[in-house]
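Following up on my earlier message about 2-phosphoglycolic acid. Here are the inputs again, as you asked, copied directly from the submission form:
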Amino acid sequence: MTRRPLIGGNWKMHLLRADAEAFCRHVQEHGAHPAAECVLFPSAPLLATVARGLAGSDFACGGQDIHPDDKGAHTGDVSGPQLVDAGCSWALCGHSERRQDHRESDQLIGEKALAAERNGLKPMICIGETADERKSGATFEVLDRQLNAALAGRPEPFALAYEPIWAIGTGETATPEIAQKAHARIRDTLADLIGSEAASSKRILYGGSVNPDNAAELIAQPDLDGFLVGGASLDPERFLAIVRCCG
Ligand code: PGA
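Thanks, got it. Here's what our run produced:
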């Protein structure tokens, strides 16, 4: 099964409107890359600017988070209908910084994935182990638990991002072998949950200190279908260099 590579740029709490506009102009001039699908995840105040700036390009826009409810008294949160209204087609669910900073539970992340689906957004569900969990041999157990909870309500479609927490923003990328082992395990677990044909069509991205120098050997792994890029997605030239490795 050929899976079209998918590359996400997670801007986290970085960039201002002028930077976002300049990024989008760069994409409009240099971004066309039919072999790969790309999506940028700017912070909430930049969503409409980026969605507008990317219009007509090959790039999509997504929210970094989504509330399980469609509206209500939830100060600081962003709902699915608001993401759609801003021009988004994707929503990140369960990024490890949300799990850690906001104590998001596995179950909540499953509810967020369903909220995305209900609103016609594609959830990109993030899972990954801490350094301690890896050291104690619990990696697969953690991935299975997170995956089971996130997919409990059967959102469809979705993409997954394997993001080992020890590799995020640290410069310590998983080796291609470590990444492939985790991705293969995720696909096996996915096969148990949704059947092997559906599992083989799902894109599993790797995230954690991806850059233009390590992207090519990572993407060569059979179960690795793209990247969720943090730091290196802030500069359009570096981001597009990563995208070009995936074509
Ligand atoms: P990083 O972040 O590329 O800066 O390690 C990845 C992510 O958190 O999605």
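One observation from looking it over: The mean pLDDT is 96. Hope that helps, and feel free to reply on this thread.
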